[in-house]
Amino acid sequence: SSRGGGSHGGRMGVSGGRGFRSTVYGGPLGIKDGPYGQGSSCRNQGLFQGPARAPRALVTGLMWLQQREAAGALRHTCEQGEGQPRYGWLQHDGDAFGAQEIRERGLLLRTEFLKRPGGEHGGDWSWRITALPDPGTGTDTDALLSLFFYVATDGQGTLQPHVEDGARLASVTGSTEELGSFNISFLKPTTETGAEPKYASYHYLDAASPGLHLLTELVRGSLSNAELAAHAAAFERRFEDTFGLARKGFAPAQQRFAQAALSNLLGGVGYFHGRSVLQAEHAEEPVLSAEAELLTAVPSRSFFPRGFLWDEGFHQLLVARWDAALSRDVLAHWLDLMTAEGWIPREQILGEEARARVPPEFVVQRSGSANPPTLFLALQQLLAADAAPLPYLQRLYPRLRAWFHWLNSTQAGALPTAFRWRGRDAPHERLLNPKTLPSGLDDYPRASHPSADERHLDLRCWMALAARVMGDVAERLGEPAEPYRHTQRQLGDNALLERLHWAERLGAFADYGNHSEAVALERRPARADPAAPPQLVRVVRRAPRPQFVDALGYVSLFPLLLQLLQPDSPRLPLLLDALRSEQHLWTPFGLRSLSRASPLYMQRNTEHDPPYWRGPVWVNVNYLALRALQHYAAQAGPQRARAARLYAELRDNLVGNLFRQYRDSGYLWEHYSDSTGRGQGSHPFTGWSALVVLAMAEQY
Ligand code: 6A9
């Protein structure tokens, strides 16, 4: 251990071995590469060609411990709810360089890695860990700090520690299936002035066990400052070349905010593998899927460290601008998860470790359930940027086709060209409105009484987008495009759209179904046991009948969001009115998800289920709104000038609030309060909230 103030480094040189591609993708927390490890050989598996990541990788990581009088806690991960002031990647290029800071009471830990490509095996990579007492948090700067590095193999391979002076671990050599032989060196720690740290001492532990234990005192770093500075400068240049935020006049603090947003999205990209629990529609019991591997970004490194289907399309809109090749890999991995019928499960909880973090009721994925096909948005962007070469599209195409047909057939509505999300919650007396998790908009109000006659507007619009992109891909490949073009025309036909979804009384587009607007939760004594505490129970004051659903919110905007409305549509000015009205969707922080005038605005769904998509501001939908407003501002039509004004105002509001919240709280958040702008829900949430970078850059 050493007294605070030391700078500790470890050079981790991995050399030798076969086909090592040392991209460092963090797991739940980048410094714990853990079971979501990195590395590995080139394999051709399914669609995915290029550097695969190893399921049984060499595992390395860091734990840390501030020793205090009242015994400190050994830390291995950062978890929401620990009151961590701030942690995350400040810079990360998704490939060869990253710099991360973890702040906690009394301590600032900085971790940096560098990859040096070269040779036959992907080259070497190095880490440096810097620990500084953090006087800002007002604690005893003499506290002992222990850093524990571990190296482990996962059931295969060998490890050999090499010890110096009786106690200091100088290196570990060994071999694994993926790497062949390798060497990891731990250099001695230094202080900032280059002197030997006064109180450093070393220990190591070599243990064969199901646990990961090579506990060692860490060492001093020889990642040269010069080399790191060059990477940081290169990152900043590339960031500016890609997004142009300095050119646009953003202040340095705002640029750093945007860099951190991108870096956390990239630094959260992980390699996951294992089996999912799948429930086929007519099977009695859920079954384990085949072993799957998934390279994906995640919504939140600490709270939801796994893949979510519709989140990923949004993530890739940003990733693709930075590194189109990485996006292509991710997209291919997702499409590879498709079952033989054409279904892609929405939440990817692969393997035991991932499952351990998820409450049992969320683990099973049900085969009838879809999720918005946002991967088409990402693909559309790759096509527009000429970043989807034909051989790649050719490999993707059979999967895309199967996916489209699965969606088009299994989610069809009762009327031609109508669609319906399958997998709504079953009605229950405790639910104000049965949720629609497959839509991604979980508790957004839908018909009060789910039925087969329901028509879901957002899904219909997603299908229009999917048909359009399928048509584009088919044309590029010389495949029959007309069936997709036909669907695209049908779903884009504004008159037909109005017939199915224009709700005159609401003055907006809406879902249709068996619905009662007079539904509420009331406190009632439990029926079975009059002595039990009262419960919230749903009462339906007027019988449901087939009608449009009286919810004005994100769903109503979909024909605008996905740019299906003609620029001269008489409905467009009405949607813009709703969007700009503070009584409805407009806030100083972005567009709220549900109108203040809507009966379910900010209503809980049950006693324990607070409003989620019933008021708060969500960044993914705001991004779509900006993109659409910019589109209508570029089209000749009566709303052109107004769309341009709304675009500029909305962008200022959204970007301004996310930046302020980051400055004040240290995080990007899952959603934002529509009344105060405060970040809410899971954090750090640098999944689709990171789209703020594209809003700043005005890239849509
Ligand atoms: C619950 C929690 C320790 C909900 O961002 C991922 C999804 C979105 O796809 C969806 O649109 N989020 C949105 O409505 C988060 C879902 C998290 C479910 C898991 C378990 C326990 O974790």
Question: How would you portray this structure in words?
Answer:
With 700 residues, this protein is α+β, with helices and mostly antiparallel strands. Helices cover 30% and strands 22% of the residues. It contains 16 helices and 34 strands. The strands form 12 sheets. Strands 1, 5, 6, 11, 16 and 17 form a 6-stranded antiparallel beta sheet that branches. A hairpin with a 7-residue loop joins strand 16 and strand 17. The longest helix is centred in the C-terminal third of the chain and has 26 residues. It is globular. The N terminus is likely disordered. N-9'-methoxynonyl-1-deoxynojirimycin (6A9) binds next to helix 3.
List keywords for this structure.
single chain; 700 residues; alpha+beta; six-stranded antiparallel sheet; 16 helices; 34 strands; globular; binds N-9'-methoxynonyl-1-deoxynojirimycin
> Which ligands appear in the coordinates?
N-9'-methoxynonyl-1-deoxynojirimycin
Principal-axes shape call: globular
Structural class: alpha+beta
Cα Rg: 27 Å
Termini gap: 50 Å
What is the helix content?
25-40%
Poorly predicted regions: 1-52, 209-223
* SS field, number of helical segments: 16
Biggest pleated sheet? 6 strands, antiparallel
Mean pLDDT, to the nearest integer, reads 86
Please count the beta strands (DSSP E, at least 2 residues each). Answer: 34
How much β-strand is present in the residues?
A: 15-25%
Topology:
Blueprint: E1 2-3, E2 6-10, E3 42-45, E4 48-51, E5 59-67, E6 74-75, E7 86-92, E8 97-104, E9 107-116, E10 124-133, E11 144-152, E12 158-164, E13 168-176, E14 180-185, E15 190-191, E16 204-206, E17 214-217, H1 225-243, H2 252-267, E18 270-274, E19 277-279, E20 287-288, E21 292-296, E22 307-308, H3 309-322, H4 324-336, E23 347-348, H5 351-355, H6 360-363, E24 365-366, H7 375-384, H8 390-410, H9 457-477, H10 482-492, H11 494-501, E25 502-503, E26 508-509, E27 512-515, E28 519-524, E29 535-540, E30 545-548, H12 554-561, H13 572-580, E31 586-587, E32 590-591, H14 619-634, H15 640-665, E33 671-672, E34 679-680, H16 692-697
Parallel strand pairs: 19-24
Antiparallel strand pairs: 1-11, 2-10, 2-15, 3-4, 5-6, 5-11, 7-8, 8-9, 9-10, 11-17, 12-13, 13-14, 16-17, 18-21, 19-20, 22-23, 25-26, 27-30, 28-29, 31-32, 33-34
Helix pairs in contact: 3-4, 3-7, 4-7, 4-8, 7-9, 8-9, 9-10, 12-14, 14-15
The structure holds N-9'-methoxynonyl-1-deoxynojirimycin.
